[in-house]
Amino acid sequence: MIKRINKQCFNCGEEFLPKTVASVYCSHICSKKAYKQMKRLKNEAEIKGMADKIPESRAFLSVPEAGMLFGISKRTLYRLVEQGKIPSVNLGTRLVRIDRSVMEGIFGPARNLRQSESVPKKKLYSLEKEDCYTIGEIAEKFQISESSVNTHIRKYSIPTRQIGKYVYAPKSEIDNLYNGNNFI
Ligand SMILES: [Zn+2]
Question: Which of 8, 86, 112, 172 has the most CB atoms at less than 10 Å from its CB?
Fold first, then answer.
């Protein structure tokens, strides 16, 4: 028989006599605590992973996105939006969007780590007619008024181009501005 020697508990650091050679925790309580901690860390890593996928240039966030970026539960955010405590833009049924700058005003900077990287981002848009929407098309596609579209374009410095009597804005920039990840 192998003589067991005292080990240090991975959770509390106390010495204990392990029940089996594989034991790493002194007690059930410590093993439970460690498991919970691990689960929490795993969740945090997952949330961070998802938050990192949200482009910094996206001005309008879906509620789940805003929740991830600002560390607030979806449920709480939906409640605050419903109560009107956080202003939102409604782009149609189940398409509530929150202005990122509004969130920053209330909760401080988003916890998107990419914000700390000072790598200048290349704008990859095209102002060719076929790569653009007209203001009217944007208004129709995203169910908002043309004047709101114009306001957002100015506010978020989206490039535009006038051809004839129409003003064009790059599809890529507009889609990024208004489109959240609807599947989350
Ligand atoms: Zn312990």
Answer: 86
Distance 12 CA to ligand 1 centre (A): 4
Confidence of residue 167 (pLDDT cuts 50, 70, 90): very high
Distance (angstroms) between ligand 1 centre and the Cα of 6 equals: 12
* CATH assignment, 54-121: 1.10.10
Burial readout 11-29 (b: 16 or more C-beta within 10 A, e: otherwise): beeeebeeeeeebebbeee
Q: Which CATH class is domain 129-178?
A: mainly alpha
| pLDDT single digits (tens) 23-71 | 888 999 998 998 888 888 888 888 888 888 888 888 889 888 898 888 8
Ligand 1 centroid, distance to 34 Cα (angstroms) = 9
Where in the chain is CATH 1.10.10.10?
Answer: 129-178
